[in-house]
Design goal:
There is one protein chain. Strands 6-8-10-13-14-12 form a 6-stranded mixed beta sheet, with no helix packed on it. The chain has 2 domains: about 40 residues, no CATH class; about 90 residues, Jelly Rolls (Sandwich). A hairpin with a 4-residue loop joins strand 4 and strand 5. The chain is mainly beta.
Length: about 150
């Protein structure tokens, strides 16, 4: 891997490729030593390029959000409506500020269902409007989520 120790910290050898895996959220950062650029993830120190991508979780039946869905897109592909349950903090402790996107890929609506004790806040509904509509979820407090997007 080629780490050296300099006076002010560690450095990456000029030709080394490095992959960093975050076991908490599954993010992977890859550094190309030959070009001195981050290939994905966030660049550091103002160098490199940010070509990070959101991960997609495809579902076609009733689904309950899990901690691994933090910062992901959930695509619902079904001809019938699909319930997506937002679990309580006691069940899945998403950090405040968690953002999740839900997209209706098929003809069946994606419908948010609050788990026990969960409050969903929206000016309209908790369901996608039509095919290719998206909803955004943002956790603003324990067991409280804001729902936004192209809602029915």
């Amino acid at each position: 891997m080629g780490f050296g120790s300099g006076g002010s910290g560690s450095s990456i050898a000029s030709s080394a490729d490095v992959t960093l895996n975050n076991p908490v959220n599954g993010n992977v950062l890859t550094y190309n030593g030959a070009t001195s650029k981050w290939l994905n993830g966030l660049p550091t120190g103002g160098s490199g390029t940010d070509t990070s991508h959101i991960l997609v979780n495809l579902q076609n039946a009733a689904y309950t959000l899990v901690i691994e869905d933090d910062s992901k897109a959930i695509e619902i592909n079904s001809t019938a409506a699909v319930n997506v349950t937002v679990p309580s903090s006691a069940s899945v402790d998403f950090p405040i500020g968690t953002v999740i996107e839900i997209c209706q890929v098929g003809t069946g609506q994606a419908v948010l269902v609050p788990g026990g004790g969960v409050t969903l806040r929206s000016p309209s509904s908790f369901a996608t409007k039509q095919r290719w509509s998206t909803m955004g979820l943002r956790k603003r407090a324990s067991d409280e989520w804001i729902v936004s997007g192209d809602l029915a």
